[in-house]
Amino acid sequence: MRIRQGWGTADVPDRSGTVAVVTGASSGIGLHLAEELARRGAHVVLAVRDPERGAAAVARVREGVPGAVLSVQELDLADLASVRAGAKELGARFSRIDLLVNNAGVMWTDRARTPDGHELQFATNHLGHFALTGLLLDSLRAAPGARVVTISSYLHRLGRVDFPDLAAEHRYSRYRAYNQSKLANLMFALELHRRLAGSGSGVLSLAAHPGLAATGLGRDFPAPVRRLGPVFAPLFLQPAAMGMLPGLRAATDPGARGGQFYGPLGMTQTRGAPGLVRPGRAARDPEVRRRLWEESERLTGVHPRF
Description:
Elements: E1 19-23, H1 28-39, E2 43-48, H2 51-64, E3 70-74, H3 80-93, E4 99-102, H4 120-135, H5 137-141, E5 147-151, H6 174-199, E6 204-208, E7 213-214, H7 223-236, E8 238-239, H8 240-243, H9 245-252, E9 261-264, E10 274-276, H10 286-300
Parallel strand pairs: 1-2, 1-4, 2-3, 4-5, 5-6, 6-9, 7-8
Antiparallel strand pairs: 9-10
């Protein structure tokens, strides 16, 4: 008898009758997540900034999953007005949402401001997802056993939250800003779990990271890094389809519990089969998580109620 090593897509249970919203699903990990969830029968909503790219992603998924139930929702996480409009449309379209995967992100961008005046990476990766989740909480509560899965990064371990300068007005490092935003993702997931559990809610909040995976995030890298990418990427990066697995497990494993963090189980957590991993020390500080939550409420104007 052949024994399969690790958890894989064959372990995903039937998702028929459920609604899953995946941000950033037009490429990379988000697209792979959308395809696997659709393969198991979920109605998958691809929440994307560019509707044309979203339509192309739908066509690609249907090539592999004929009959997949898919739809596109325009959503620009860097623009809080777009987040509010998108959440409102989703609430009107669906009586409940069973799964929200906060996956979209940008990485190592040039210094930039959003329409709301926030630093681009922190706004896109964290604040937009914080606001979206808060605005969709009622829709999630309407689904028994609903889950929120927030995709962080292996690099969250190098991050720290610079509360005096969250907007990077005084100094900017593309690398520091990214690490901060992914630490914020993980802190948000853990603090959301604490608040949901404390209120007796049945909604679960989990987090995952893909290790080092080849995704479309490289489009924002500095030109020298982009040129070297094709040479070095195969040596260090696992395919996006593998990087997707920790998020898929957090989203679908019947044994998963709120507050858990999934990542690759290989050496240094950069690649391998998905399983439970330990958050970095900074993410485990409850006081910093609470403060980040309060700052996120202030910066987005979204105040989730539990």
